[in-house]
């Protein structure tokens, strides 16, 4: 029941669609422009760097803060605190990607997943950030960088699970592993159209005017 409750709470929080709200403040529905999603990258393309940063921070914090709160509440059981943190984080990403009041058309969950990664392990977050910056700098493809970051997140989480996150005492980390895979591949799934465009060479590069 706690797991389900955390998913529901996370989903409700995730429905705070920063990009949509910021767009409405500028008298527009951001989903009708650019790539058609309500995330930070599309906001960056349509409304500029300042707007993109604001939306990114909003989507980042709406998962980071609940994840840290859950970790603190259940701090007496380390492995369970990380597990529950992933549940509320997954709920936030689902709410962000599929907001019920917007016809289930939201963003792609990259910024919100980044908040989960930061709450989980600052080492993984640092590697993911470095990889993201390098890939964007050399290719100018935000989508490619986002996909690679999710793969790094999944891989490093699996490598560290036996010596971190409270599972070293013999308890099974299988549920933890599964949640990490679901969260990571959910974002990759949301980039399926981008993957097709990357393969065909028609993907938009960052900085391209909309």
UniProtKB/TrEMBL annotation:
Q: Which E.C. number(s) belong to this protein?
A: 2.3.1.275
Please classify the protein's predominant subcellular localization into one broad category. Answer: membrane
Q: Does the keyword Membrane apply?
A: yes
Q: Give the GO cellular component terms, alphabetically.
A: plasma membrane
The protein's annotated catalytic reaction(s) are: an acyl phosphate + sn-glycerol 3-phosphate = a 1-acyl-sn-glycero-3-phosphate + phosphate
Pfam families the UniProt entry points to: G3P_acyltransf
What GO MF terms are annotated? acyl-phosphate glycerol-3-phosphate acyltransferase activity
Q: Where in the cell is it found?
A: Cell membrane
The reply on keyword Isomerase is no
Q: Where are the transmembrane segments?
A: 5-23, 86-104, 110-134, 141-161, 176-195
Q: In which pathway does it act?
A: Lipid metabolism; phospholipid metabolism
What PANTHER family does the annotation carry?
A: GLYCEROL-3-PHOSPHATE ACYLTRANSFERASE-RELATED, INNER MEMBRANE PROTEIN YGIH
Family membership: Belongs to the PlsY family.
Q: Which NCBIfam families does the UniProt entry name for this protein?
A: glycerol-3-phosphate 1-O-acyltransferase PlsY
- Described purpose of this protein according to its UniProt entry: Catalyzes the transfer of an acyl group from acyl-phosphate (acyl-PO(4)) to glycerol-3-phosphate (G3P) to form lysophosphatidic acid (LPA). This enzyme utilizes acyl-phosphate as fatty acyl donor, but not acyl-CoA or acyl-ACP.
* Subunit comment: Probably interacts with PlsX.
Q: What is this protein called?
A: Glycerol-3-phosphate acyltransferase
Identify the gene encoding this protein.
Answer: plsY
């Amino acid at each position: 029941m706690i797991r389900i409750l955390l998913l529901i709470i996370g989903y409700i929080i995730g429905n705070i669609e920063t990009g949509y709200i910021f767009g409405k403040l500028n008298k527009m529905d951001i989903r009708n422009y650019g790539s058609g999603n309500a995330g930070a990258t599309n906001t960056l393309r349509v409304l500029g760097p300042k707007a993109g940063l604001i939306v990114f921070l909003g989507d980042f914090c709406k998962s980071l803060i609940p994840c840290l709160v859950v970790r603190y509440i259940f701090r007496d059981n380390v492995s369970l605190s990380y597990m529950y943190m992933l549940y509320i984080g997954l709920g936030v990403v689902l709410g962000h990607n599929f907001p019920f009041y917007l016809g289930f058309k939201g963003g792609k969950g990259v910024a919100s997943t980044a908040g989960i990664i930061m709450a989980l392990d600052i080492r993984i977050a640092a590697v993911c950030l470095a990889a993201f910056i390098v890939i964007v700098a050399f290719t100018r493809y935000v989508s490619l960088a986002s996909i690679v970051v999710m793969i790094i997140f999944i891989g490093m989480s699996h490598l560290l699970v036996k010596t971190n996150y409270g599972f070293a005492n013999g308890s099974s980390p299988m549920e933890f592993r599964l949640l990490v895979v679901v969260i990571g591949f959910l974002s990759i799934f949301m980039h399926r159209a981008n993957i097709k465009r990357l393969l065909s060479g028609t993907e938009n590069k960052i900085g391209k005017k909309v």
